[in-house]
Design brief:
Number of helices: 2
Distance between the termini: 30 Å
Order of helices and strands: HH
Helix content: 40-55%
Number of strands: 0
Shape: flat
Strand content: under 5%
Structural class: mainly alpha
Length: about 40
């Protein structure tokens, strides 16, 4: 079974924990920026 980007996105929302999901783009963007330094 292939994992598509759409399915990955839907599944990842189950474990994404941050304030105001869907309205707060800064929190996950900062997390992504932090991952670039690792």
């Amino acid at each position: 079974m292939a994992l598509t980007f759409d399915k990955y996105q839907k599944e990842s929302r189950k474990t994404a924990v941050y304030p105001n999901p869907g309205k707060n783009f800064i929190y996950p963007a900062l997390g992504l920026a932090g991952e670039t330094w690792e």
